[in-house]
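Human: If only I could read backbone structure tokens as easily as an amino acid sequence. Underneath my words sits a plain record pairing an amino acid chain with its backbone structure tokens. Take your time, and here it is.
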Amino acid sequence: MGQVKLFARRCAPVLLALAGLAPAATVAREAPLAEGARYVALGSSFAAGPGVGPNAPGSPERCGRGTLNYPHLLAEALKLDLVDATCSGATTHHVLGPWNEVPPQIDSVNGDTRLVTLTIGGNDVSFVGNIFAAACEKMASPDPRCGKWREITEEEWQADEERMRSIVRQIHARAPLARVVVVDYITVLPPSGTCAAMAISPDRLAQSRSAAKRLARITARVAREEGASLLKFSHISRRHHPCSAKPWSNGLSAPADDGIPVHPNRLGHAEAAAALVKLVKLMK
């Protein structure tokens, strides 16, 4: 209940959030969303919320489904029956197919589903991985776990978009009465310059900003052309990057019990949930 009250306080800035909402093209065929309706959350760590509250009981440990992630907060606020299939590290491949012991996320969507949220695509193009690699490049003695910067080919970008399209199409096919909301990635980079929270080289920062913008464009295009709604969280959170006075996401380090580096913190998940509450109500 405490989190629901938090949403009420969050609704004041929702006029700003409305600038990031795109209405679904298929509203006419969607059934009313009632309390207790089946809600399926799909996606990677930006939806799963590792470190944002304890892991959901019974969930795979490595998926890091925090109990204060935006799917849990949204389900609590609207009194929905949540099936959280999100998993940290997931790519579009892991939504469409199995990932070792984790079944395909898409299999959680069935004919009883009335709401689906989706945040995916960043891991396919090494978005966060490259930010960490850029940080490692500046270390005098890089951590042995550091990865190398990966140049993403045009073919990889196109394949990422096509798989995102396939996910939305399969959701519509499996759950014809469901609302589908694609949630793009929270802003994790300052719009200009750098800061201690995101200390990577200006060149790598520019490359990462470009990747973030392209990922947002792809996500918006898929939502628009495949009949889903869009929560443009990248726009809503643009003034709350890690270098800001009130960050909704963490920089290259994270406070204890408030998410993980280069990911949404608790406040970020609360803000995403509040904007989704508003959007879903508008979709009725």
Q: What stands out?
A: The chain has ten helices and six strands. Confidence is low (pLDDT under 50) at residues 1-30. The two ends are 23 Å apart (CA to CA). Residues 184 and 239 are 16 Å apart (CA to CA).
